[in-house]
Design a protein that fits this description.
amino-acid biosynthesis; Alpha-Beta Plaits; Preph_deHydtase; 279 residues; 3 domains; D-Maltodextrin-Binding Protein, domain 2; lyase; ten-stranded mixed beta sheet; aromatic amino acid biosynthesis; binds 3-phenylpyruvic acid; Preph_deHydtase_CS; 28% helix; alpha/beta
């Protein structure tokens, strides 16, 4: 079975994907959008993409594509510790530019400023793509933020270890597919949840309160609520909502029916398990 991931090799997403799918063919893709399209077009059965980081927050592209790709569901979530290092080419340790995935640059923002002077930051499609670029361009004064697997694979020198701003740094990755399936993994189970995308009925006072009260009086515990722009104009949002724990068939289905009866649009992205994997 083919599984897409945000690559190239030695990206954090690959480290997560290789622990989820030990015996499948992992296919690197150069963007999160490419991973969604590969699932949609049937080039791969599933994809692994980053969703949220404990320092930097939601990967907004992933949330937007979950909204845009109407047939895509979530099958599982894995949480992985993240350690960032500053890597340079062994032939040229000088740098005036630090390149990496925008999430990695943000997770190391203050630590870089504290330790280094006079450099600029530049976004790359992934940490591993940045590490590969540093290895292929010894003539350029660049450093990459990436993991120790990337340092080994692309034969780079670790100039400074553990440059993330907060010691506790974890990222959630999700497995997406076109099937409403819930993956069972042999890793440490840390929870189960349901993800929904909700669009409110027309704007009126108390609209969001009304939606939240549907969960509240049923004692359904929400573990995440995030609004994202619908891109139809300022002030128009959709809500990404996680309901923690089990999805009670009658109680929860009634909640969805009630939400729809008050004019909210609800998409069920999946009920799935959350696992902890190693870095
Ligand atoms: O760029 C990568 O290696 C990714 O897989 C995305 C990412 C970036 C920073 C932290 C976790 C995941």
């Amino acid at each position: 079975m083919k599984i897409a991931y945000l690559g190239p090799e030695a990206s954090f997403t690959q480290l997560a994907a290789s622990q989820i799918f030990e015996n499948e063919t992992l296919v690197p893709h150069s963007s999160i959008l490419d991973c969604f399209n590969a699932v949609k077009n049937g080039e791969v059965k599933k994809a692994v993409v980053p969703l949220e980081n404990s320092i930097e927050g939601t990967v907004s592209m992933t949330l937007d594509y979950l909204y845009d790709f109407k047939n895509i569901s979530i099958e599982a979530e894995v949480v992985m510790p993240i350690a960032h290092h500053l890597l340079v080419n062994k032939e040229n340790p000088e740098f005036d530019t630090v390149i990496s995935h925008p999430q990695a640059l943000a997770q190391c923002y203050h630590s870089l400023d504290k330790n280094f002077k006079d450099y600029t930051r530049k976004d790359f499609s992934s940490t591993a793509a940045a590490a590969k670029y540093v290895s292929e361009n010894p003539d350029k004064k660049i450093a990459a933020i990436a993991n120790s697997y990337a340092a080994n694979l692309y034969d780079l020198k670790i100039l400074k270890k553990n440059i993330h701003d907060f010691e506790q740094n974890h990222t959630r990755f999700i497995v997406i597919s076109l099937t409403k399936n819930s993956l069972k993994l042999k890793h440490k189970l840390i929870g189960e949840k349901t993800s929904l995308i909700i669009t409110l009925p027309e704007d009126h006072a108390g609209g969001l309160h009304q939606v939240l009260s549907v969960f509240a009086w049923r004692k359904m515990n929400l573990s995440k609520i995030e609004s994202r722009t619908l891109k139809t104009g300022l002030g128009n949002y959709f809500f990404y909502i996680n309901v923690a724990n089990e999805w009670h068939p009658i109680l929860s289905e009634n909640a969805l029916a009630e939400l729809r009866s008050i004019g909210a649009e609800v998409r069920f992205l999946g009920h799935y398990e959350e696992y902890l994997v190693k870095d």
